[in-house]
Amino acid sequence: MKVKTGQPPEINLNPVHISKADGTAIELASIIDTEAVQSLINDFYRLVHIPMALFDLKGNVLVSAGWQDICTKFHRVNPETCKYCIESDQKLSLNVAPGKYKLYKCRNNIWDVVTPIMVEGQHIGNIFSGQFLFEDEPLDYELFRSQARKYGFNEEEYIKALEKIPRLSREDIDTGMAFFMTFANMISQLSYSNIKLSQSLAERDAVVEALQESEKREKARSDELAAVLDAVPVAVYTTHDPQALKITGNRLSCKWLRIPPGTNLSKSALEGEKPEFFKLFKDGVEIPPEKMPSQLSAAGIEVNDCELDIVSADGRIRHVLGNARPLRDENGNLRGSISAFIDITERKRVEEALRKSEEHLRLLSDNLPDSAVYQYTLDPDGSGCFQYVSAGIERLIGLNSRDILNDPSILYRIIPSQYMGELIEAGVRSAHELSDFDMELPVELPDGRLKWIRLNSRPRRLPEGRTIWDGVLTDITRLKRAEEVLRESESCRKVAEAVDTERRRFFDVLETLPVMIALLTPDHRIAFANRPFREMFGNSGNRHCFEHCFRNNEPCDSCKAYKILETGQPYHWEITTPEGRVFDTYNLPFIDVDGSRMTLEMDIDITERKAAEEMLRDSEEKYRNIVETANEIILITDNEAVINYANSKLVDMLEYPLDEVIGKPIWGFISKECIPAVRQNLEKRRQGISESYELKLIRKDGSPVWTFLNAKPLFDRNGSFTGVMSMLTDISKRKEAEEALANIETARKKEIHHRIKNNLQVISSLLDLQADQFKNREDIKDMEVLSAFRESQDLSLIHI
After folding, report:
1. Locate the PAS domain: which residues (predicted)?
2. Which of the 8 DSSP states describes residue 27?
3. Residue 57, number of CB atoms within 10 A of its CB
4. How far are the Cα atoms of 19, 201, 207, 214 from residue 210, in angstroms, in the given order?
């Protein structure tokens, strides 16, 4: 590509330093009259036949004249050659000094010439002249024919367009560019006034627009503030003068007092204008006007966290909490105040109810017979302390609750050292698993006596990571002594163990039920209450049911629980508690393992179904724990024999982690020789047939394990086969014993066979010896033969 730089004519090169109001670069299209310029260059082209055009820096053509067909119909139409045109125009026009021009041949092999247009020292566009060939240059037809072929142009039409290109002398170009450079400078100079005027008008419009926008924003802010004041759940009071003669409130403040908006609320108003529809009290004493928050802040005093009671004319009391701040003008002089208060009536009511509830609970916990209530906290860093210990602890173990709260170690010091490890281990396990903490251990009282206590608590974890146990410490010394007495004789020990085991088993079952269960003695005492019952009513402490559940001093008149003691028949009824909770109650006759008669009461809370569902989920979790802790493999497969569920026993037995079992077909865990039988049995499951049989499985290390399988088919509500639930018991030891017995039987049979064979051989030999004495004898008597046989028999017995 050839480039030539032309010499400038005598023109004014002093830049005019003008900038747009927003500081952005000036666009060429914004400072020229394209229609007037287009008319001018059309006339110029008709005069000198030199093509020209005005381009901005983005390559956009603003005006043009004399463009040749080779460019408009070919080069500017093809994407690649058009790219060359724009690239040549943009890159080759760079770094051309003002008042100079650059002559270059574009990448499409056509001559062009360019001179820059400068405004306020900025390069904003270019004047191009081009699409010509020099008359002193031979026309390279082969070059342009190759271009036509390369870019897919019609070769004949392309050459015709080429031959129409003007052929100019270099003097023509110099003369034309002198005009174009003068024209470019004229555009720069003549645009000065327009740009300046445009900037002035733009600045004026910007100022006017800014003022209008400011007024709009101020009005919008005012409207927004008014809307906010009416929308917020806060009573806002505005004092309009330093003397607090006029105070108005927002919508909520007027609603509190049932007055129209705009009513003057100032107790400092002039006589005859003071409001009489409310009074302000603090700590039960009426507040004089000069001590009211709005008046104090109007005098320049900030008021913070002020609690007041607003007493309306109808006697209604509203507890409020708020702040007040002075308002000052631009000179810092006081002009009023603003105060905001929130209604804390409900909060005060709840706080009072909570205080009474806590006091009631504290009284209950402090007076539990043989028990004390505690709360223990363990921080994430491992440090722990007691948050609460009821006063009953001193009756139990001789330590003051305040001393334990100040120094928990005094409680640990009365625990024998051999139990500390177990205590710490149980605490760590409970914290890790969030499982109940339940432990019995002895303590050495300060007076030297030994007592047995039971610690029973349930942990919960707070969001910040702290773990809190709420529990009960119970004196079980008498129980331990009774157990010791029972252990004095073997028969009593067995009876006690059987009773305790049976009762515990029964109680454990009751603990897992998602309903409230209680055992009531004939004198109305709660002998046992399961977990849901305790969660609803708390630990009974062996109190009467009417005391513990209904806070009565004598049996309830409406109680029907004890009808079964008269009739011996179950009874079903509903109980409504004083709090409004309704229970579906079933009373059943019950004989304890020791023969004592009781009433088993089952209560189902039908007030809150969600609570019942939660209890049901807890029950399901316990059943899952039973499955997970079962001594057999429990397995559920789908209708394609893919394992959907397996308990942890499978991990213990086959040594596969669960993630390598769940979702896998059963065939990879079954001995190859058993697979055909299992496939056949699987077809029986599809037919609804349950079955039990022996099955050999393969451990992960390849070793076999024999199991006894109980399989039950599973079907959905539509009767479609969905899979199989199987329980597999490890019978490897039994199989080993059977194999050993079989080996012993085989050996025993071999030994008997050997002995019989030897004895028969001996008898045969003896008979042969006896037969020798009868050889060559014609007269043989029966007695002689019999005698010989008996002699052989005797000899054979001697051999045996």
Report:
1. 619-684
2. P
3. 19
4. 20, 14, 5, 6
Instruction: Tell me the one-letter amino acid at 497.
Output: E
Indicate the burial class of 269 (C-beta count within 10 angstroms; 0-12, 13-18, 19 or more): middle
| Apex 673 CA angle, 669 and 677, nearest 5 | 90
Which of 95, 96, 68, 72 is CA-nearest to residue 82? 72
Contact 151, 76 (CB under 8 A): no
315: left (phi over 0), alpha (psi -120 to 50) or beta: left
- How are beta strands 101-105 and 61-65 bridged, if at all? unpaired
- The 10s digit of each residue's pLDDT in 156-168 is 998 888 888 888 8
CA of 147: how far to CAs of 74, 88, 185, 396, in Å?
Answer: 11, 17, 37, 110
pLDDT number for residue 336: 92
Q: Is 239 within 8 Å of 338 (Cβ atoms)?
A: yes
Give the separation between CA 302 and CA 326, rounded to whole angstroms: 7
Residue 493: its pLDDT value, please? 62
**Adjacency order of strands within the sheet including 278-282:** 247-249, 235-239, 334-343, 317-328, 303-312, 278-282, 285-286
Sign of CA dihedral 54, 58, 59, 60: negative
If you ran DSSP here, which 8-state letter would residue 800 be given? Answer: -
Model confidence at 390, pLDDT cuts 50, 70, 90, reads confident
CB distance 247 to 264 below 8 Å: yes
Q: How far apart are CA 4 and CA 290, in angstroms?
A: 93
449-461 per-position pLDDT tens digit: 888 988 899 999 9
User: Which alpha helices (H) appear in 445-515, and where do they start and end?
Assistant: 477-486, 490-512
Buried b (16+ CB within 10 A) or exposed e, 712-724: ebeeeeeeebebb
pLDDT-derived band at 241, boundaries 50, 70, 90: very high
CB contact at 8 A, 102 and 93: yes
Residue-level pLDDT at 6: 44
Residue scoring higher pLDDT (254 or 584): 254
Tokens 């809370």 correspond to 605
What's the distance, Cα to Cα, between the start and end of the chain in Å?
Answer: 129
Report pLDDT for 204. Answer: 74
- How far is Cα 741 from Cα 757, in angstroms, rounded to an integer? 24
Beta strand pairing call for 122-134 and 167-168: parallel
Q: In the predicted model, is pLDDT for residue 11 greater than 60?
A: no
Q: Is the confidence at residue 21, as pLDDT, over 50? A: no
Side chain identity, residue 238: T
* 23: region left, alpha or beta (phi > 0 left; psi from -120 to 50 alpha): left
The one-letter amino acid code at 483 reads: E
* Cβ-contact 371, 392 below 8 angstroms: yes
Contact 194/30 with Cβ under 8 angstroms? Answer: no
CA distance 537 to 529: 10
For residue 697, CA distances in Å to 289, 667, 681 come to 92, 10, 16
Residue 172 near residue 47 (C-beta atoms within 8 A): no
pLDDT in tens, 396-445: 888 888 888 888 888 888 889 898 889 889 999 999 999 999 999 898 88
Ranges assigned E (strand) in 510-553: 516-520, 526-529
Each residue of 146-172: b (16+ CB within 10 Å) or e? ebbeebebeeeebbebbeebbebeeeb
CA–CA separation, 374 and 405 (whole Å) = 10
Question: How far is CA 197 from its chain centroid?
Answer: 63
Residue 391: what residue type?
A
